[in-house]
Amino acid sequence: MKRTRIPALAAVVLLAAAGGSDAATPEEDLIASKCTLCHTSSAVYTADSARLRETVERMTAKNPDWFKGVEMRHLLESLEKMLADPRVAEARAAWDAAAARGKALFSDPSLGTTGKSCADCHSAASLGRVKDAYPKHNPELGRLESLEERLDTMVRVKLKGAGLPLDDERSTALAIYLKTLR
What we know:
Number of strands: 2
CATH topology of the largest domain: Cytochrome Bc1 Complex, Chain D, domain 2
Shape: elongated
Strand order of the largest sheet: 1-2
Number of domains: 2
Distance between the termini: 29 Å
Strand content: under 5%
Largest sheet: 2 strands, antiparallel
Structural class: mainly alpha
CATH superfamily of the largest domain: Cytochrome c-like domain
């Protein structure tokens, strides 16, 4: 199956927050230039609209210089506008659907030949920080390893399955599911 490409946060922000206008506000510039330094698309797709103020306040405390000259009300309005944009809503729906497929795959013993699934060895609660762990250095490979590569290895080695090539939408779905865990 073909892998769905989800747009990067910066592209989503620029399209949605700027609303097609060439003149971005200081708040929209902040989102596009600073928020995208740390936050990936998953931050948009899993953002809780009800907690935007809390998130912005936390980020303001961490990086006060970034928020000079930015009005909190306008920043929250820009973020709410971005999350309400139909293109972002479509991407969020695709993310949610992929996460649901990944959750099902996490418990699916047919990924391998051992009769076990990921869930037989890993509790979802224990994987809440996996999204922050990858990519990470794998000494056996002598390089950084992505989450998707690790999933492929786990399926091949531990579950004795055919593996999950990087272009396999199951790999994407499992990775997205793991990124939703807290």
